[in-house]
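If your schedule permits, I should be very grateful for your opinion on a structural question. Thank you for your consideration; the sequence and its tokens are set out here:

===
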Amino acid sequence: MIPPPIALHPAALRQTIAALRAGRPVEAESQAAAILALHPGQAVARYLHGVAAFDQGRNVLAMHRASHALALKPAYAPGHILRGRIWQARHDADDAIRSFGQAIALEPRALDAWYRLAVALYNADRRDRAKAWFLRLVERWPEHGRAHYNLGRIARHAGAVAEAARRFERACALEPERADNHYELAIARFSEGDAIAALTGLGTTAMLDPDYAHIHLNLGLVLRALGRHGEAVAALEIACRQDPTLMEGHHALGDSCLRHSSPEAAGVALSRALALGPDNALAMHQRGVAFARGERLDDAATTLTLAVALDPYSARTLTLLGLTSIDRGRLIHARDCFIRALALRPDIDQTHFNLAKLSDRMGEAATAIDGFRRTLALSPDFPEAWWELLLALTADTATAPEVILDLQRRRAARLEAGLPAPAPHRNPIEAERRLIVGYVGRSFLSIINDLTTSALSAYDPARIEQIAFAAMPAEPDFDPRAFGLSRIEEVCHLDDDALALRIRDAGVDILVDMDGARPGHRLAVFARRPAPVQVTWIEAFYTTGMTAMGYLLTDAIHAPENETLPIVETPVRLPGCRFCYAPPRFAPETAPPPCLKSGTVTFGSFNALNKLTPEVIALWADILNATPGSRLLLKRSTMAFPEIRDAYAARFAAAGIGLERLHFRSSSPHPDMLAEYGNVDIALDPFPYNGGRSTCEALWMGVPLVALHGRRMIARQSASILTAAGRPEWVASDPREYRDIAVSLARDPNSLAALRAGQREQIKQSPLLDARRFARNLEAAYRWMWRRWCDGARQSC
């Protein structure tokens, strides 16, 4: 505190005070010394002499001069304030507080002493006392902006965010030119969850103080919270340029680059953060994420291993290390990582799922099923876990169909819970009019694929209009009319309510689900009943469990008339097979059976390995043992992993088949994969989870396929395909007959050659590829469903 000019030596003292206020302490010191040379007992001059020394950082000399001034005038409050400031500079909080208190006792109206005492208490972490002094201060001087500011800081530290915001808001009103007022208010607003207000406040702060790195740091954090990751990256880059030593800035920049899909830039930023803070386990984890996303798998594994060393209790890092190990083909290490992660955090659904999926890949069905169930117990709305559990149970011979029915009903109940009653449908009740059929899929390929495209293209446009509700294909010149569609509605951006409304507005009469329970499905839209008639089709080898799904498209082999099916929907049986195959144009010509050259028969399966149950392996081993010298070719992408090859080799070895009779192949481009059927004499279909597309492709490539007619819908899929293809004789009623058919085919290479030569032409003429016939049958099924709805609608009118 610099006192106002006094009467004694007024001109000289005014000049000294003016110099101090202007920030010229050397000049002020000289002027004060001149006064003291003439009047050494002048207390005010002694005090100003001390202030000049203090402003130059000469604290010992300043204390000497302040003490001299107080010796001359003990009741001089400014002298005590100066001593308090010097004690503060020397980090002596108690003496500073005592000095400011003495000043207030001498001069109760000394605002500067009140404020400095409260600040000293705050800096000494005596916040309760500081708060009391600040409150007394604003009671006397309600327009003191700094007091409101500090009360806001105290409230923020105490977790009273609303009170802090109120105080900072008052400080902004009193001192709008101070950047720190706006900064603290913005942080308080962000803590309240109001990111927009925080963004506005930080923008004001940046205009007032554009060179303060923490402003841009927090601006980036707020933008990140708003999902504006590109802008967040730009703000954080400014923060890091302004303060290259700001570790938090580089860390946040790396995180935002990851969110902005820039893994390379993220890796650079996180490396800088780690150079500044090498013990930052989270930054190390995120650098591992950056390397993994940039497909630098070895670097990712090394970095994540370092992150685990920094924080051995991070289940999340162990989980990511496990996933990286899978990508590097180290499945056993991956399993160990997942198990360690779950020992630390048994409540992480994703880790349970990862371990279950790995177990499924390894052919450990019981462990996989248990893991998927644990995942759903923690996260009942985990779509991938529902799907994988459904597949695992479908392949499991010990699982009764009623178990799957119960699973799907429980899942459907979650989709349908809490929805309001649907509005009445306004579709014209005319049984024979032109119908609008909508197909819903997670992507365009869910609707137009090799099991649907030829049939949809063969519809009679005079009787049916077809609309696809799915993601638009990437091809710029795509014409939906080439596939029998009037248009494609791009719906990826629509939530369930909005999509249901779009379907109602389009006047859809019959809505067809093409995804079943596959992740990305839109079954929740069907739960809202946007169309009068709703039916599930392509994935209909199990029930959806939904009361809102009226029908399930199937056929008489999948779902015999005399059998009670474990489904909720009404089955609609199409003549022949429930889908129509369209072979890919890039399929190569068929090749002669390889046994003609090798002299030995090669059996093969290109199906998912989790379909190879113990019963399947036992039967296939029996077939190999019954055909001396024969071999088995198993092709699947997961065969790229040595641990998986070893696991299946061990299972066949336990059944008496040595590794020399097994051929393992991993994935290849689709045309090349089809050409590899030239290395297979006879295809073997797994059970109870039959092939679908793989069955069709084997037959198209001229390879006979042996299938077992099972006791559930999916276990009859290949039987339906084979019957539609004109080959019912390759369908066995039991495992013994399955073995006999396979062995009989293997013993007659000449018959295999004849079959190979004529099979493609036979299939071309079969119902399996008769798109026009299938389209007429499907049209008839749609018309039957529509007439039923019209009858019911008339009765309810």
The radius of gyration is 40 Å.
